[in-house]
Every structure is written in structure tokens, then in C-alpha cells.
């Protein structure tokens, strides 16, 4: 299947900061891919390279079979950056006309606004929109030029549940019609609602590239921590470490782990079980590629 966006071994530095570290990724026509990761993971940098706003330090970036730096190539895509500023005095309908006039093919204005629940606001000045309506409009504009592919950087940040769902429906509609989407998010639920494939990034690297279900299973880990001298071999331990006299165990099945711990008769105290953050989960999992071997503390 046609590859619409590709990076090969891409690195991007900002001074001493390594924002992307040898990232290779293919996005094929018709895919809806979620790019998930904690703050500072490198998601926006990757989007900015794909859409030609920044250049890579090394490696190759391809867009629609050409270069993201080529304005003709860029006419085939739509983009909503993480932050947008729209001219306050223009009306909603006018900004849609203005943006779509830059593209050879336009999306029907009425249909576009209806798809994103903005059809009642066509005459409203942008300065009179709520924050959520402005964000929805900014996302809508990515679709104005009948793009083959859209890049959405945290499209639903700041939206309430209803507005978020309306946006999701609009994005799904585009995808159902054959459109390709790459969107970033901090939220697994958002990626789960939209995407089949999820690419997890952390510290500038691709940590996982899999189905949403597989990634959800990875994230569903818990941290069991306790005080003990020594522990026996315990089932389902993905990673472990010792800190300030406590032992921390990362597991997908804390119930079974505790049952086995009690069964073993090992003396322990101060048992705590808590969720791991997304970041913690991924960093723990990926920094322990030989995880099974580390289960014996
Ligand atoms: N213009 C810049 N100058 C210096 N450092 C930068 C610049 N842009 C990004 N960085 C750094 O590069 C790293 C990746 O940032 P990036 O914005 O790509 O992450 P992100 O995953 O999009 O984060 P967030 O979810 O917070 O938007 C971070 O350490 C960030 O501080």
C-alpha cells in the first residue's frame, strides 16, 4: 500500500536536546495513526518535520512521495498545530474561504462546517467564539483543502466531552472516506476511540508501534511496592528496583503477585499498589528489555 509519510532514521536536535533519536516510521494511505507519548516526548517535532515546518538534523523525511519542503507537495495535506491564532475579526465562513482558496481542490464549505458541528456559526466573528469553538474551527481548517492526509497535534486539548466527540466524529468521517490521519495525544482513550494503530514515543524514540489493544495491555501495569529483605521469584513481574529500603515491582497482575507473595511465606510490610503513569509504564518496560530475568530481587 502507498506510503504517504515516512521517516528513515531521523534525528532532530535543538542544541543539546535530542528531540528525535533515529526514528523510522511509515504511515500508509488510509491509516489513522495515533502518536502517543508524555510531554516532551518528541511528538510535535515529528509532526513539524512531516509538514515541513522544521528540518531534520539527519535522516530522511518523505511526504506524499516528495519532500515536505516542497509547497506543491504540502498542498496535499492539512495541518492543525498544537497552538493556533486565528484573526479575530474574520467570520467563520470567511476564514474557511480564505484557507481553502490556497488549495486547488476545496472541501464543500457547508459540508465541512456541518461535519464539525460549526454550521450554525458560519456568520460569527472568530473573536466571538468560545475557546472550544475556536479549537474546533482550527481543526476544521485542516480539512478545508480536500487533503489526502491530515496532521493534528493534540486536536481536542481544552474541549469538553461533547465537543471532543463531535471532533472525533468529524475525523472518523474523513477517515471513513479514505483519508489518512496522524494525530498526537496524551490520552489513550482518544487514541483508542479513533485509531487502530498507535505509535508510542518517549525521549525521542519509538517505544511501541502496535494495535491499540496491545498498547493498552502494556499500559495496564501496576506498581507494587513493599519492604522486605529478599523476595522469591514472583510471577508476572515486568521490572523491579530497590529504592530507600523499598522494593518496587511492576506487574500487569498485582492480585496474583500478592497472592503468591503471601503463599511464599516471605515476611514483608508496607504493601502499596498504585497505577503507573503512562510515562512510567513505558519507560519501565522499555528500559528493561530483559525484564523477566530481573524478577528475582
Ligand atoms: N524550539 C525548540 N528549542 C529547544 N528545544 C525544543 C524546541 N522544541 C522542542 N524542544 C525540546 O524537544 C523535546 C521534544 O519536544 P516536542 O515539543 O517535540 O515534544 P512533545 O511530545 O510534542 O511534547 P508535548 O506533549 O508537551 O507537546 C523537548 O525536550 C523540548 O523541550
Automatic annotation (TrEMBL):
- Does Transport appear among the keywords? yes
What terms describe the molecular function in GO for this protein?
A: ATP binding
Name the InterPro entries on file.
AAA+_ATPase, ABC_transporter-like_ATP-bd, ABC_transporter_ATP-binding
Q: For this UniProt record, give its keywords in alphabetical order, as a comma-separated list.
A: Antibiotic resistance, ATP-binding, Nucleotide-binding, Transport
Highest taxon, organism lineage? Bacteria
- The signal peptide stretch is none
Return the CDD domains for the record. Answer: ABC_DR_subfamily_A
Q: Where is the ABC transporter domain?
A: 5-228
Q: Where is this gene product found?
A: Cell membrane
Classify the protein's membrane topology as the record does: Peripheral membrane protein
This protein is called what? ABC transporter ATP-binding protein
Amino acid at each position: 500500500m502507498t506510503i504517504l509519510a515516512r521517516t528513515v532514521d531521523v534525528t532532530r536536535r535543538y542544541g543539546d536536546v535530542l528531540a528525535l533519536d533515529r526514528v523510522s516510521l511509515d504511515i500508509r494511505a488510509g491509516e489513522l495513526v495515533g502518536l502517543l507519548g508524555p510531554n516532551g516526548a518528541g511528538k510535535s517535532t515529528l509532526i513539524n518535520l512531516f509538514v515541513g515546518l522544521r528540518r531534520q538534523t539527519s535522516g530522511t523525511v518523505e511526504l506524499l512521495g516528495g519532500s515536505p519542503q516542497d509547497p506543491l507537495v504540502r498542498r496535499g495535506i492539512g495541518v492543525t498545530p498544537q497552538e493556533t491564532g486565528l484573526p479575530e475579526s474574520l467570520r467563520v465562513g470567511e476564514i474557511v474561504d480564505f484557507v481553502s482558496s490556497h488549495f486547488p481542490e476545496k472541501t464543500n464549505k457547508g459540508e465541512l462546517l456541518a461535519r464539525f458541528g460549526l454550521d450554525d456559526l458560519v456568520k460569527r466573528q472568530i473573536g466571538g467564539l468560545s475557546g472550544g469553538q475556536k479549537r474546533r474551527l482550527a481543526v476544521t481548517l485542516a480539512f478545508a483543502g480536500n487533503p489526502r492526509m491530515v496532521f493534528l497535534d493534540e486536536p481536542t486539548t481544552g474541549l469538553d466531552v461533547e465537543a471532543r466527540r463531535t471532533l472525533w466524529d468529524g475525523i472518523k468521517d474523513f477517515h471513513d472516506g479514505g483519508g489518512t490521519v496522524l494525530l498526537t495525544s496524551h490520552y489513550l482513550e482518544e487514541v483508542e476511540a479513533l485509531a487502530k494503530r498507535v505509535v508510542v514515543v518517549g525521549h525521542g524514540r519509538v517505544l511501541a508501534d502496535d494495535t491499540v489493544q496491545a498498547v493498552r495491555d502494556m499500559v495496564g501495569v501496576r506498581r507494587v511496592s513493599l519492604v522486605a529483605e529478599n523476595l522469591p521469584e514472583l510471577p508476572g513481574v515486568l521490572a523491579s528496583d530497590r529504592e530507600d529500603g523499598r522494593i518496587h515491582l511492576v506487574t500487569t497482575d498485582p492480585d496474583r503477585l500478592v497472592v503468591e507473595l503471601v503463599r511464599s511465606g516471605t515476611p514483608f510490610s508496607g504493601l502499596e499498589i498504585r497505577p503507573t503513569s503512562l510515562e512510567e509504564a513505558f519507560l519501565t518496560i522499555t528500559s528493561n528489555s530483559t525484564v523477566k530475568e530481573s524478577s528475582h530481587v
